[in-house]
Design brief:
816 residues; alpha+beta; single chain; four-stranded antiparallel beta sheet; five-stranded antiparallel beta sheet; 15 strands
Length: 816
Amino acid sequence: MAEGGCLPTMDLMRSEPMQLARLIIPIETAHRAVSYLGELGLFQFKDLNAEKSPFQRTYATQIKRCGEMARKLRFFRDQMYKADVSSSKLAYGSVITLDELEAKLGELETELIEMNANSEKLQHAYNELLEYRLVLKKMGEVFNSAQKKATTQQREQEHRRVEGSIDSPLLLEQELATDSSKHVKLGYVSGLVPRDKSLAFERILFRATRGNVFLKQDSVGEPVIDPVSGQKVEKNVFIVFHSGERAKSKVLKICDAFGANRYPFTDDIRKQQQMITEVTGKLSELKTTIDVGEHHWRNVVQTISHQFEQWKNMVKKEKSIYHTLNMLSFDVTKKCLVAEGWCPVFATNQIQKTLMQATVDSNSQIGVILEILQSKEPPPTYFCTNKFTSGFQEIVNAYGVARYQEANPGVYTIVTFPFLFAVMFGDWGHGICLFLATLVLILREKTYSSQKLGDIMEMAFGGRYIILMMSIFSIYAGFIYNECFSVPFELFGTSAYACRDSSCEDATTIGLIKVQNTYPFGLDPVWHGSRSELPFLNSLKMKMSILLGVVQMNLGIILSYYNSKFFQNGIDIWYQFIPQMIFLNSLFGYLSLLIIVKWCTGSQADLYHIMIYMFLSPMDDLEDNELFFGQKYLQLMLLFLALIAVPWMLIPKPFLLKKQHEERHQGRTYEPLGAHDDNLGPESAGGSHGGHEEFQFGEVVVHQLIHTIEFVLGSVSNTASYLRLWALSLAHSELSKVFYEKVLMLAWGYESVVILVIGIIVFVFATVGVLLVMETLSAFLHALRLHWVEFQNKFYEGNGYSFYPFSFDLIGDDEE
């Protein structure tokens, strides 16, 4: 199925006539010819190399090249996303060949990879220097405070030694007399460790060294960028004092295990200041270099974004062209490619003109030969639709694609689907809300069609015209039901009923009398709120549902007649269509007649009693249930016809099919050579000579038995299934009434603005969430079931396959 742009008059009743064509294309013209056919989009190629793997085909190398270019374009797309640059829809630059594009993409990829690698190295060095400066500053502060504290303690000790205080340590003189070269020197390791690992880091250090280390930590105020991961991490600056090489080795291993970054440190204050100055200078230089590199990288990405769409489309087209060329086979001379495929009959002249243009543009001396083939293979199904009809056709195709030139239910679905939906959803207030919401989608369809929408929004946008028709029919049905958010209005005049006397105050309890002509259109508003509202509406909607169901099922059976007539199948007309029409209308057509007669005459006859005793006691008199003269004899005749119709459907058809099979193949066991066109292929020629398949009479009888039982039982169940129209209409009306009376009116009764506002908010959300969303979806699904099961199973086989032409417009954006 295709959308728009079709030259012939749109005829959705039958699919377009198709033909199998063979193209003999010179090699020098092949690429351009396939490209032009892709632009035309009306030729479906058959794979003539199905037995070959993708790697054994002729153009596997070119497809690999296109795949590599597509990978580079995906890399460019990631870079554009990283730079927050969107691709331009307008094409920039001159048209280039595929080889030039391949070379250019390679150069740009190499340049971007090199720039990214350099930027990563510079950023890594910059982050390391930032951490190093933090270590120098934090540990410098620790050492300065420790040195000041040590100096103060030393002065106090010297003062005590001079004064000879009794509080001075006993070993102080011995300690001061010891040679400083014999003092134990402590080593230290400094760096940064993630804050969330700091406690475990301290605990493991203590256990591994048995407490023979001293750890000092200080938290960093703001998160820092980790040089390894490139992520912002909260860290602590630490310094670990240890004694001996063995302890140092353990400390280094633990630091590596916890991802702690180590940096060198000196206890010399002068060197500390000098190192801080050097690190700050290097940071300034690196920052300048990184900014310049990022500016250059952004310019390159910006340049790519101007031509990205053009390059992407070119690569997609080339890849699809070579995929199609791989479906073609070589002729015996190896100088031409042979293609076979399906195309619509109306497109023959267009395809010929396209191929002639390809020959001229390729400067080829030999033109492309187009040959029409005869085939017994079923052609694909192609309906030429537009944006309005495509949604309804998709509803049918979801059940099954129509067999080639089978009667298409999509024509009737355009009207019957929204109409049955509206029967269940009828409320002109809700219909207007649905209409306005759909109108926004239609007015902004150009904007939405170029955007990526969510799954639900995408579904609603795709079916915008379906929802539009549903809303229009819902408004119409709402006028029939006279309901706007469950409230009746006197839109078409005043009510035909009034109080029986002037003292009447409560019309719902005392009663009404008819005082003027019947309300001109739809349901009289006085029925709403009366004691007899529910019985009256139940009776009306139930009978209306049966009438609509019988009409639609009859339409399905009538379409089966047109199918049989089109395919020249007289057996189905005489032994399927006629008995089905007789059986359905003898029972439920008669019921529909009784409903209409009862409405017209105002009779009090019990239709349940009539239909039940039509089978149980057909010879009894009808008495009070007689609606017209001769009804008893009419019922006897209809009952007899219904009983006759069952064996009429069941018995003759298998025997006639067997006779037809024998006559078709009588005396055709042998045929002269050359009786078949070599173009037909083995699958089409092999079925009409040689060993014919034996007619499976038993299978045909079983199939016909199943089909007959299914129709007989289905006539009852399908008619009952249409009562869902009554049930859902009643549910929608009662829900709407509950929300109106128990929420909005209840809040209105209170003399409080707050309660009124809350009531309005609850009413709006309940109306939108339940009635406009859930009820819409429910009615949609029930209408879908009525079309798929009750309507289409009467005539629609749906065992075909769609026409999927080679077209650049059908290539997906995510095709790789």
